[in-house]
Design goal:
This is DNA primase. This protein has one domain. It is built from three helices and five strands, in the order E-H-E-E-E-H-H-E.
C-alpha cells in the first residue's frame, strides 16, 4: 500500500474529513507515529487510511487547531475556492515515501 507524507494544509477535503472522523477530539501520544524521512529528519505524524493510500499527516503546532475548527474552516474554503481549482493540483507537492519496513525504529536515541 502506498504511503504519502503530507502537511494537513495540502489534504484534499475528503482526506481532511477522514482525519477529523478518525480524531474528532484531537490526537494523543499513542496516535503519533515517529519516523525518519528520506532526508534523515525525524517526522511525527498521524495516520489516515483510505482504500489505496495511507496518508501520514505531519504534526504541526496548528494541526490540533485545524481539527478543533474544521467545520468553520471547510465552509470558508468551499466558499472561497476559485473556479478551475481541483484537489488534484496539490498532488505534485505531496512528498512520497515508500517504506521497506512498516516504520523505521531507532532503538537508542542517545
Amino acid at each position: 500500500m502506498l504511503r504519502k507524507i503530507v502537511d494537513y494544509k495540502k489534504l484534499s477535503h475528503e482526506v481532511a474529513a477522514l482525519l477529523i472522523e478518525n480524531y474528532p477530539h484531537g490526537y494523543g501520544d499513542s496516535d503519533i507515529i515517529e519516523f525518519k524521512n528520506m532526508h534523515g529528519e525525524y517526522v511525527e505524524a498521524v495516520e489516515v487510511k483510505t482504500d489505496d493510500i495511507i496518508y501520514l499527516v505531519k504534526i504541526s503546532k496548528s494541526l490540533s487547531n485545524f481539527i478543533a475548527n474544521f467545520d468553520d474552516s471547510i465552509a470558508k474554503e468551499l466558499v472561497s475556492k476559485p473556479e478551475g481549482f481541483s484537489d488534484d493540483d496539490s498532488s505534485e507537492e505531496i512528498e512520497q515515501l515508500t517504506f521497506e519496513n512498516e516504520y523505521e525504529v531507532e532503538e537508542d536515541l542517545d
